[in-house]
Amino acid sequence: MRNLKFITTIAATLLLSSTGAFAASAEKGRVAFGKNGCWQCHGWEGQGGNAGPRLARTQLPLEALTAFVRGTNGPMPPFSKKVLSDEDLADIYAFISAQPAPPDPKTIPLLAR
Ligand code: HEC
């Protein structure tokens, strides 16, 4: 079991590092996303909810996302470094960036006419 987790982590890391941008961990990002309550407004998968917009596959660069999360003074509460470290935020970024694309609506029978 531990080995499986280890292999999965390596595989995820290789996958992410092969796409270039992230040294961060999507797996740790999922945990940080839960622990810091992002899911309450943005949904467990970052798919968006009643209270917050969709974050999955964000087009924002990490710097812009970090600036927003640290400095927002609108409907979303800001998260300072004391509450959420840069490392955790980079992991969260890896997590939301790694979400799969939504399926083509044509492949969903209920939506086909
Ligand atoms: C209390 C609800 C709430 C929580 C908790 C919350 N957010 Fe948000 N978030 C929002 C709302 C509402 C917006 C839209 C705000 C705006 O446009 O000013 C937003 C916007 C964002 C955006 C900008 C999205 C874009 O494309 O412009 C990011 C990034 C983001 N949130 C990340 C996070 C992260 C990461 C966490 C957890 C650390 C988090 N949020 C927790 C409500 C929340």
Give a written overview of the molecule:
This protein is mainly α. The chain has a single domain (2-100), classed as Cytochrome Bc1 Complex, Chain D, domain 2 (Orthogonal Bundle), CATH 1.10.760.10. The protein contains five helices and no strands. It has helices at 2-18, 26-35, 38-42, 62-71, 86-97. The longest helix has 17 residues, at 2-18. Residues 17-21 have low confidence and may be disordered. The chain binds heme C (HEC). Heme C binds at residues 36-38, 40-42, 51-53, 55, 58, 60, 65, 68-69, 72, 74-77, 79, 84, 92.
What is the CATH homology-level superfamily?
Answer: Cytochrome c-like domain
Average pLDDT, all residues: 87
By helix and strand content, what is the structural category? mainly alpha
Number of strands: 0
N-to-C CA distance: 45 Å
Quick recap:
This protein is mostly helical and 113 residues long. The chain has one domain: Cytochrome c-like domain (Cytochrome Bc1 Complex, Chain D, domain 2). The protein has helices at residues 2-18, 26-35, 38-42, 62-71, 86-97.
